[in-house]
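Issue 218. Parser rejects a valid record. Input:
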Amino acid sequence: MASGLRSGACRARSTASARRTANQERRVNPQAQSPTSAIRPGPTAGRTAEVFGVFLKLGLTSFGGPIAHLGYFRDELVHRRRWIDEAGYADLVALCQFLPGPASSQAGFSLGLLRAGGLLGGLAAWTAFTLPSALVLLAFALGAGALTGPWAEAVLHGLKLVAVAVVAQAVWGMARALTPDRPRAGIAVAALMGVVFLPGAVGQVLVIAFGAAAGLLLCRDAPAATGGRLAVPVSRRAGAVALILFAGLLVGPTLLAPALPAPSGGAGPAGQGLALFDAFYRAGALVFGGGHVVLPLLQAEVVGPGWIDPARFLAGYGAAQAVPGPLFTVAAYLGAAVGPVPNGLPGAAIALVAIFLPGLLLVYGALPYWDGLRARPRAQAAMRGTNAAVVGILGAALYDPVWVSAVGDARDFALAVLAFVLLTAGRAPPWIVVLLTAAGGLVLAQLR
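Output the parser choked on:
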């Protein structure tokens, strides 16, 4: 009996020792934090190059917007390459949808960071996924000035009608997903009215804040999210630095604005470059709910000050539907096409980095804290209200500037409806719809 007791005690001490060793290993090695760790890192040599190659392929083939991109990622990285399991991927997507910014690009950045074990992998994933569409839209912007005459105007008009169909599809799909009950539908309607009466970027920020407050009051009954843990190679200190940098870049230019010359009043290239960075950074920092929501924010930032005319703005947005990769790369077109210097290649580079940077800083900063935050019911309720408000913001944008600038008569309306039906009921690839609608613009020009 005594021997059995001593044996049991030894086993207990051995188990306790093993647990202490495991706890020490988890503190030293983040990849060992949880038995549900989902990322399967590759060999040390070449992991960043592997990430770049895989995401370059995705950047060349991923059509259809952020939700479709997440589906491509799942097929390629969860099912085919087995970089991450289903639970881990779902948890990562939940984080990226919780934060403002381009969800698919944030998910790609995070997957690259986790796969390669550091920031370099995340930057490789973002660069490879973004580069193809950014280069195409930059080329379109540089050549758009040469598009003159009736035929060119007809094609550009067709691209504006594509924007009508695409934004209408986004409003329809997001409304079904994000406003499934009366409280959230009411928040969306109130947000739409708020944006109508308070146009511009400030009004949109106030409406988003209203959505969060209304969500805290009205959206507490939905079930809490569940999921596994992610083994994150980012320390809490590094995450805090990224979040502080995000906030500093968001409010810093506003605080410094009184001491700087006006962007359009002789500020020179340096002052205008800062204004350009600030405009696109602010737009990227305030986008909740998907890529199409950036449309009203960008419209307020670049059309409002007169940097670009509404027709060229919507033509670029329509062209962005025909290319794979993230919709945020429309910033490359806009940065190159704005009137004030810097424009062209420098303007495109500034705008592209600025619009993506806040989302990447946020996801990098939030990854170490996500497990604790996602379990808070109040945070989830606030996000439900914010997402509902986003539907209202996008609904207002569908009317002005999209509809007002593109639909002039019944023929325009019919072509926009046809494009919408092809995208929704017909499930046609967006690039085919773009080509057909551009050709339809040519036909309408001949009928007028």
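Fixed in the parser; the record now loads. The chain is about 75% helix and 0% strand.
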